Amino acid sequence: MRLFGYYALHSVWNQIRKVFKTWVLVFILVCGLIGGLIGFGAASLQEAASADDEQIEEVIEESEEVPQASFEELTGVSGMDVFELAASGLILGIFVFQVYSAEKSGSKIFLPADVNLLFSSPMKPQSVLMFRLGTQLGMAVVGSVYLLFQIPNLMLNLGVSFSSAISVIFAWVLTLVSGKLLQLLTYVLSYRYEWVKKNLHKVIYAFGALLIGGFWLYTRTGDAPLLQASVRLFNAPWTRWVPFWGWIKGFAVFAMEGKGIMALVMLALLAAGFAALIYVIWHIEVDFYEDAMVSSQEVAEILEAAQSERGGMFVKRKKDRSEKLERDGFHYGEGANVYFFKTLYNRFRFGHLKYFTATAETYLAAGLLMAAFMRFIAESDNVMPFALVFGVLVFFRAIGNPLNTDTKYEYFRLIPERTWKKLFWSLAGGSVNCLLDLLPGMIAGALVMGVNPLKALAWLPLIISVDFYATNVGTFLDLSIPHSIGTTIRQTIQIMFIYFGLLPDIAVLAVGIVFGHPVAASILCTFANLYLGLLFLGLSGVFVEPYGGRALETDGSETVNAKQTKAVFSKIGLAGVIILGLTTVLQLGMVRFFESSLEQIAQSEWGMWLITFAPMYLIAVPLGLLYLKQVPAVKIEKKNLAPKYFFVIPVICVFLMYAGNLIGVLVTSLLSRFITPDPVVNPLLDLTSSGTIWQRLLFMVILAPLIEEYIFRKQLIDRMHVYGGRTAVLLSGIMFGLFHGNFSQLFYAAALGIVFGYVYLKTGKLRYTIALHMLINFIGGILGPSIVENASGVLSNIEKLLILSPAKILSMPALITLVLYIVALLALVLAGFVLLVQQMRDVSFEKEISQLPKGSAKTIACINPGMILFFVSCAGMIIYTLI
C-alpha cells in the first residue's frame, strides 16, 4: 500500500508541475487580468455614474413598462427543475461515454513505467490499474478547478447559498469518480469475458433506443408540453434512488434545497457504491500484461517522436491500407497551400463514396435523430436547437485537433514558407472539411423537419467558426504543453480554454434570443470566434519556431572599468533626483503660496495645471538636464520604423497600459488595507476628470509626451546605450515608471517606457516614441474618460434601464458608444497580448562599445549612490501617496 501511495502521489505531483511549467499558467494570469479589467471598468462606471439621471428618466417616462412574465410562469417549470433535468442529462451522458469507451480508454491507461516498475513489484494487476486510474482521476479533478470561478454565477442565477454552490461542484467531482469506476469495471469485465466485449456497444445502443422510445411513448400518453413532460419523467422522486446516476443528482438537488440530511444519505450511498465497485473490480481474476505492453510501447513511440524535433518524417501504420485506394500521387498546390489541397485530397481519397468521412456520417446520423425529435416529439420547426446540436458536436470533434496531423511532423518546419502561412492553409483545409462534413447532416435534417434547408444552412458560419476557434485552441495547447502530460489532462485543459472562449458566445446568443434578434447575435458570435481563433493561431506559430529571428546574445567586455561606469550611472541617478526633488519642493511651495496669497488662482482649473507642471518643466527639468551634461551622450544611428510596426506597437501598448494599470490598482488596494483605512486615490484619475478637454489635450497629450520622451529616451538612452542596449532600455523604462511616484501608474508606465525605449534604441528617432506616447495618453486620458462620462447618466439607474425595450436602448448613443468602446478595447487587449508574445522572440540587442558583462550589469548600473538615492526618493513618494 505504501508503494502504491508513493507512485500515485509522485505521479500526480509531477503532472501538476509539468502543467504549470507551460503557458497554461500565463494564460490563467492573462484571463485574470482581462477579467479584472472588466471588473475594474464596471467599478469605475459605478463610481463615475452621477446622481443626475435626467436622460434615463426622460426615456423611461416616454416608454411604457413592459410586463415581463417569469420563466416559471411561461413554462410551468421552475429553475430548480431545469437544473435537475440538466444534471440528469449531463451525468447520464458522462456515464454512457465512459462505458462506451471503456475498452479503448482502459487499454490506453498504461504507460511504459507500469511495465518497468510496477509489474515487477509485489502488487496485484488491479493495483496497477487502480494506480493509473487514481492519477488520471486526480488530475481531472485538479483540471476542473476552473469550476470554482462559477460559484458566484451559481449563487446569482440560481439564487443558492455558498454551501449549495460548493455542493454542485462536489457533485461534479463525484460524477468524475463514478464515471471512471464504471469505465474501469466495464473494461475489467470485457477483458475477462469475451461476450461482454462483443455485445457492449450493442447493449449501449439498445439502452439508448429504449430510453428514447420510452420517452416518446410517455409524451404520447399525456398532453403536457415537452419540457414539462421531461421534468415529470426524469425528475420524478424515485429517480433520485437510481444507483450512482440518481444518487449524484439527488445529492446536488437535496443540498440546493437545504435538505442536509437527505444529501448526506445520498453521499453515504455513493460511498458504499464506490466501495462495492472497487471490491468487485479487485476480486475479478485478470491480468493486463498484454494490454500494458502494447499500450506502453505505443506511448513510448509517441513520446520519442515528440521529443525528436516534434515528430519524425514517417508514421508506422497499424494495418495495411486497402488495395482499392487511389495511388496516382499528390501533385496539387505549391508552397504553404499544399496543406490545403492535401487535406481535401485525402478526404476524397479515403472517404466512402469519395465524400463521406466517419465524421460526416456521425453528423448525418445526429442530424436525422435531432430532426426526428424536433418534428415528431417536440413538434417544432425551430432550427436553432437543431443547429446548436451541430455546434456541440463540432466543439467535441475539435478536441481531437485535426490541425495536429500537420504540425507534428518535421517536414512542416522544413517547407520554406512563413510559419503562420502554413498554419493558415492547413487550418483552411480543416475548415472546408468541416463544412463538407456538416452539409449532408444539416440538409437531410432540414428535409426531415420539413423546413427550407437554407434556414438550417444559415447557421453554418457560426458552427464553422466554433470549429475554427476550437481547432486553434487545440493546436496552441498541443504545441505549448509537453507531450509527457497525459491525454486526459491535455483535453481537460483544452476544454477549459475553449469554455472560457465560448462564454461570450453564450452571453451574446442569450441576449439575442431575449431581445428577439438571434440572427444578429449569431453574426456577432461568428466574428468573435474568428477573432479569438486568429489570436490563438498567432500564438501557435511562436511554438512551432520558438526562437524566430532572435540574434545570439553576446557577453560584454571584461575590461570595463566598473568604478568609472558606476560613477556614470550615479550621475544619471542624481540627475533624476534633482528633477524629482525640485519638482516636489516647488510644487508644495507654490501650493502654499497661492493658497495664502492668491487663493482664487490656486482653486482655478488653470491654476491646478500650472502648479502641477510649471515647476517641473520650467525649473526642475532644465536644472536636472544641465547636471546630466557631465555624462557624454552618444547619438544612435537613425533608421526608419518598418510600416507594420505602426499597427503592431500601438496595439501592444494598449495591452500593457491596461494590464499594467490593473496590476497597479490591485497592488495599491492591497497595500492601502494595511497602511490606511481610506481608499487611495489614483492621481491620474484626478487629472483626467478635472479641467477642460483643451487643457487635458495641451498638458497630457502634447506637453507631457514631448518633455518626458526627451528626458527618458533621448537624454538617458543616448548616455546609457554604450554600456548595453538591454541595460539602457530596461533602466530607463524603470526610471520612467518610478518617476510617476505612485503604484497606480508605476507598472504600466514602466512597461510602456521599456517599449518606447526599445523603439528609440532601434530607430534613433524620437518622433516615433513621442507619437506613441501621445496616442496612449489620448486613449487613456481623453477618449476613455470622455466616453465613460457621457454614459454615466444612463448607467446611474441601471434598474430602470433593464425594463426598456430594445428599440429604446438602441436609441441611446452614449450607451452604444460605451459598449462599442469596451468591445474594441477588449479586442485590442487580446490582440496586444498575442502580438507581444510574437514580437518578444525577435527582440535582440547588438553589442555596444563598452558592453557590460551579463553577470555584473545590474550591479554596476543600479548599485551606486546616485541610483540608490533615486530609488529611495521614488519609494518615499510612493509611500507618501499611500498614506
Would you give an account of this structure?
With 883 residues, the protein is mainly α. The protein has 3 domains: 79-307, no CATH class; 333-544, no CATH class; 566-618 and 642-882, no CATH class. Helix content is 75%, strand content 0%. The protein has 39 helices and no strands. It has helices spanning 2-20, 23-48, 54-62, 71-75, 79-100, 102-107, 112-118, 125-143, 151-157, 162-192, 194-220, 226-234, 245-256, 260-282, 289-307, 338-350, 358-377, 383-398, 404-407, 411-414, 419-449, 453-457, 460-480, 487-514, 518-544, 562-597, 599-602, 605-628, 645-675, 683-688, 693-720, 725-739, 743-763, 766-795, 798-801, 806-810, 813-840, 857-862, 865-882. Helix 2 (23-48) crosses helix 29 (645-675). The longest helix is centred in the middle third of the chain and has 36 residues, at 562-597. The radius of gyration is 32 Å and the shape is elongated. The protein starts with a helix and ends with a helix. Residues 37-68, 306-315 and 549-553 have low confidence and may be disordered.
Describe the structure concisely for a colleague:
The protein is mostly helical and 883 residues long.
- How many distinct beta strands? 0
Rough outline = elongated
Measure the end-to-end span.
58 Å
Major beta sheet summary: none
Total domains: 3
- Specify Rg, calculated over alpha carbons: 32 Å
Helix content: over 70%
Are there runs of 5+ residues with pLDDT below 50, and where? Answer: 37-68, 306-315, 549-553
Class by helix and strand content?
mainly alpha
Mean pLDDT: 76
- Percent range for β-strand residues: under 5%
Total number of helices: 39
